[in-house]
Amino acid sequence: MNTRRPLGIGLISVGWMGRLHSKAYSSIRYAYPEAQFSPRLVVAADAVQANADYAVDVLGYERSTLDFRQVLADPEVDVVSICAPNFLHREFALAAAAAGKPFWIEKPTGRDASETRDIVDAAAAAGLVTGVGFTYRQAPAIQHAKRLIADGRLGEITNVKVSMLADYSADPLGAHTWRYETARAGSGVLGDLLSHGIDLATQLVAPIGDVTALTQTVITERPKPAGVTVGHVQASADDPKLPVENEDYASMLVKFAGSRAVGFLEASRVAVGPRSDYAIEVFGTNGSLRWSFASMNELEVCLGTDGDTHGYTTVLAGPGDGDYSHFQPGPGIAMGFDDLKTIEAFQFLQSVVTGTQVAPSVGDALAAARVVAAAEASAADGAWHHVESVPATV
Known about the structure:
By secondary structure, the chain is α/β, with parallel strands linked by helices. The chain is 32% helix and 25% strand. Helix 2 (49-59) links the parallel strand 2 (37-45) and strand 3 (63-65). The radius of gyration is 21 Å and the shape is globular.
């Protein structure tokens, strides 16, 4: 009989992502029956009473609170999920580190690279492993692509294209929230979406070494509703307008460190048409591949330059690709976004139990944040900017 170590879970902020974290923890026992630990949803905190009640009534937490400090002080809480807005990440992460609680935090981990570095330093000083929500690297098709590139099947990598296009802010009547304020969000689409693209490119090719970028704010003001808003909601045209302080669109040319490879990365939150059209293409001297979140379980692959028929073959994700076999028995059966969050949850708790960093860490978040910082600087002055590397020990 498998004796599992119980791990008490604390949650800070019961929004969409907090609910996904909770579902992911609960799904571990189904996807990873061999796990040597068993998550237990102990306590959730949210400043809104209705959300705190939801954590108990729907998500299954044993209790809830309006004060995040009670989560960190609870002796039954072993680990913490931090799913609050960006401007609270540093405060909550440093408090979790001071309490000795390993934490799984969403990106961007800090509003800028400096805040993210503070979080990295606090976790390191406390000797904590961490988890960061770089969700798309967990897709089995991406893991298949990573293996093909590492094995040299594409030859020398020459260029990369990353596109992260979404329309969640395309409506000019979309409510003005903290996401559009630099003091509370930091960057706009650079941190929100393109950090995922940066992570994908880094995972598949190499760290980004140099950047030149441009940004654009398409919708320059938005209505501020009178009441509390959750997520991306529509306001009234009669509501007072507030300025949008960060970018709706960003693009960058990059050079990869230690490689001749170059790349083009772009992201938009106001693209009319794409809903969540996130894609990466990698080209080499002997082949190429492309992946899109819209067809998450498929990888388009072209290998070699000879033959009468030359083009892409669709490879379906299957057993042997990442953690696919934990969810489906054979190729062709789709996985979804929530499954990727379950993989994140498992990797985070596996890191805690083993003391070895398995999950993406706050060090990975710092690497992405430094690329974002270089892109912001380049957008301001039009020059190329070098990206400060993150030591492997971090």
